Amino acid sequence: MLVTELDRLDPILLIALAGLTGLLIGSFLNVVIHRLPRMMQAAWEADAASVRGEELPDTGPYNLLRPRSSCPHCGTPIAARHNVPVLSWLLLRGRCAHCSGTIPVRYPVVEVMGGLLSMAAVAQFGPTLAGLGAMALSLTLITLAFIDLDTQLLPDDLTLPLLWAGLLLNLWGTYVPVSDAVIGAMAGYLALWLVYWGFRLVTGKEGMGYGDFKLLAALGAWMGWQALPAIILLSALVGSVVGIALMVFRRHKKDTPIPFGPYLAGAGLLALYFGDWVQGLMPRL
What we know:
- By secondary structure, the chain is mainly alpha-helical.
- It is 67% helix and 0% strand.
- It contains 11 helices and no strands.
- The termini are far apart.
């Protein structure tokens, strides 16, 4: 019934509404990107303390909702009028209203990415289950990419639900037949698992984390096994170019790890929105 009602709306209005929704969700994604790794660290420390028979001091609630967002410099809670996506950052010229500390440009960048990809999802798939799913996938990939850039972690709290969501949606063939989705999930995990162990046996070092396996498995669950070769090739190609550029221009040490998740996420988005073009690259690469 809701989809039928939405179909009656002007397509431009629908896309604009999707963009506004994506901007608002993008603002929340900044909270997730900042807090989820810290929540994970706190959980690990609590588990370790429990094993040692210790009790950590109670520092109050810290989750995705509490406490309120605050300035990273002075700790002043951010007023609602200063928390409007993109607009507040522009009006404040990228500075805290209280202490004038610099607010990184990545905050509005995440919000804009959320808005643009939400618009792309509705423009390509319409006000359908596939459109909503594409929005959810896009927004989650943004979150995973930035968390991996910051911490070199791809949290199970995001990758595993993403995998199961892809399989669930494809029970009805939303993007690919369910058989292709199941094979894609298995092949995605095993492909990077084999690369990991091959690299480790040859060099004695870990070339990537287990989160990368799970993320590629999730992408296979959403887009099927047919998309995996192009996703792997594109992510490896871009990752290699960026890694070489970092070593040449920023004196990035060879032993310093480079997160692979952002490249997988970017290649996954290309496969989602430009699947035919991505598949067509394979014979030429």
